[in-house]
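[job 4471] stage=fold_predict status=RUNNING
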Amino acid sequence: MKKYLNHILALFIALTALSSCSDDNEPSPVPKPNPTPSGYCLMFYMSGGDKKHDITLMESARQAAAVSDDNVAVTVLHKNSGEGEGEAHNGTHRYTAQNGVLAEDPTFDPGEDFAITDPKELTDFIRWSAEQYPNRHYLLVIGGHGKAFVPYEDEDASAPKTRATLYDDHNYMSSAQLGNAIRQSGQNLDALIFNSCQQGNIEMLAEWEGTADYLLSSPFSIPDFGYDYASLIGDLQQGRSVEEALARTAHRAINLWQEFHNQEKCGMVTQVSRIRDLSPLWETMRQIIGAMNKSIEDKNFTTDAPAVYGQPYGQGYARALVSKYVGDKDDFFEYLRPYFALDIVGFFHAAYVQSGNMKLAPYINRLDEILADVIVTHRQTNGKHDFIYLVFNALSIYDEELDGQLYRGCRFDKLTGWRDFYDSLS
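[job 4471] inference complete, writing structure tokens
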């Protein structure tokens, strides 16, 4: 018997050693929850940024807290901007909410200037929320100002920058940092929700892959209203799945935001994506980009405009890039479109038509099939689907002095080779 136990112990040690190995180039997977979760917890992690958003962001959390019950709890960590008078604009506060009661945590000591953009603080908040409401389905809401890529170097160019996902004065948390903060928490998330602008870039999906089952976000700027969390909680309380509740939340948002479009003020976009495993998406994009990169000098033999007979495919690819990159200044729908970005899905389709390269068809058709599985819902106020996942498109001036190495540090570029293809065109 003792000999048998020794064999079992040796096997257990060997398996433990194997499971501890991981690829340093890939993010560590989030552990699966155990035991089976019961109930929900919405976690709001927010930075006001200015006195107007101090109020609107906290109001979103208050509305969620007001409809909480035994089955759906709420936690909040909110840093105010310090730009106004009173508690509503100053300090950092942490709350719990259940059965409609929002209660501030008296044990929380944020210090004089809480570093809300520090990834460690987000990790700690997720862990604290899970301790308050253990063994639940968790939905993380990030609230605050988001920001697009900028085509110049900041003072700190030591790390690859995808879009900034949370701002506090001049400090920010990058998309990659946010993804790693979630992984470090060791907590499985059902959903990642961005109550902030311009959080729909393809580079972001690469950084957040595996951190949650679903992502609710927008590639455009969004109004201060954000999303209707009270109705989202109502869906969960009625027994709807997280996927259905998020899809309904996206539809409600566009239905309400449609008035901005109807009055020709601006256009709006929102979507829900499945982001647990995106490996088929990256593989297919890598194949498309690779096929285009290898065929730049090959000649077109189709006669259908806008492709030009006898012209190298590369010229068609370049025209497609310009057609998707240059915004229409007279189209109010594009008013909130981020600068220096284009829809990568639309670009692939345009490159096929503009170049006349028939060999791209199987790859692009495969991409569309994969996207049908990735995208739960996609809504634009103009009824189209031409702003799905944006990709940065000012690479030649973004990190030129670093020979492109800053962008090449992004996980998306490592997976697909987008930067090399872009450089070959420009």
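[job 4471] summary: The chain has a mean pLDDT of 87.
[job 4471] exit 0
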